[in-house]
UniProtKB/TrEMBL annotation:
<dbReference type="InterPro" id="IPR024529">
    <property type="entry name" value="ECF_trnsprt_substrate-spec"/>
</dbReference>
<keyword id="KW-1133">Transmembrane helix</keyword>
<feature type="region of interest" description="Disordered">
    <location>
        <begin position="274"/>
        <end position="296"/>
    </location>
</feature>
<dbReference type="Pfam" id="PF12822">
    <property type="entry name" value="ECF_trnsprt"/>
</dbReference>
<keyword id="KW-0812">Transmembrane</keyword>
<feature type="transmembrane region" description="Helical">
    <location>
        <begin position="175"/>
        <end position="196"/>
    </location>
</feature>
<feature type="transmembrane region" description="Helical">
    <location>
        <begin position="53"/>
        <end position="72"/>
    </location>
</feature>
<feature type="transmembrane region" description="Helical">
    <location>
        <begin position="236"/>
        <end position="254"/>
    </location>
</feature>
<feature type="transmembrane region" description="Helical">
    <location>
        <begin position="145"/>
        <end position="163"/>
    </location>
</feature>
<dbReference type="InterPro" id="IPR017196">
    <property type="entry name" value="ECF_substrate-spec_UCP037395"/>
</dbReference>
<feature type="transmembrane region" description="Helical">
    <location>
        <begin position="118"/>
        <end position="139"/>
    </location>
</feature>
<dbReference type="GO" id="GO:0022857">
    <property type="term" value="F:transmembrane transporter activity"/>
</dbReference>
<feature type="transmembrane region" description="Helical">
    <location>
        <begin position="20"/>
        <end position="41"/>
    </location>
</feature>
<protein>
    <submittedName>
        <fullName>ABC transporter permease</fullName>
    </submittedName>
</protein>
<keyword id="KW-0472">Membrane</keyword>
Amino acid sequence: MSAPRRSARLHAVRLRPRSLIALVLVGAVGVAAFGWPFLAPPTSQLSAHAQDAPWLFAGLLVLLVAVVAATISESDLGPKAVAMLGVLAATGAALRPIGAGTAGIEPMFFLMVLSGRVLGPGFGFTLGSVTMFASALLTGGVGPWLPFQMLAMGWFTMGAGLLPGAVRLRGRAELLLLGVYGFLAAFAYGTVMNLAGWPFMGATASNISFDAHASVPANLARFVAYCLATSLGWDLGRAVCTVVLTLVLGPAVLRALRRATRRAAFETAVTFEPQERSPDGYGGSPSGTQAVKHPT
């Protein structure tokens, strides 16, 4: 059997209209959950309960991420895609603790970029969320920050699946594109996760903590100072690590993922059709049927 042509891209998960609606919904709520310090007026009840708001949004995001994962799985997540999801999620969860606490060296991010690129945005969002959940269980990192991490990693991996040139762009140009995306997205991930933890600071650091009574420009200046003081070095390490691993290991990993995707034939269904026997009574299966693969 010849390899599939490059004119078509194989999808582990095809996003149906209901899945797209669920993704848009969780994205809108996620933006509100991360950005509420800049969206809520100082006089609102949400700002008045600044210490409780992250817990509220954490509980809400748990439900919404679960709804999105269930919706995508109902759309087209067959057994082969589930197997691929399990292998990649387990690999990502195992990679995460390798550089924990060491200048932001987190090798799981490059695997998420390459997996999202090959397997598409729908699979990418599911993979990112599941991987972060599995790694939290593995490392004991379960807390109110976990739903934010799951959503942010889902966005991170889904974004790689939305990059242009998924069918025809190959070689150095593709690696350069993935490297640039990985660098910028690593900083974006760190920034949105800072938004999730920043309101918890309260008055512990008066110059950079969230002030529920301050104006949006004043809080924005505090947040920038918070990012520079607490996470710039970590985010830079994560970004550089992602770029280096993408450029060095990217060609081999991309080939392996694409080969596995072709062999899995996610969009091909196996059915059984009658097979004619030869005049001498031989040829064909004992039941008179043969397995035939049909594109779905």
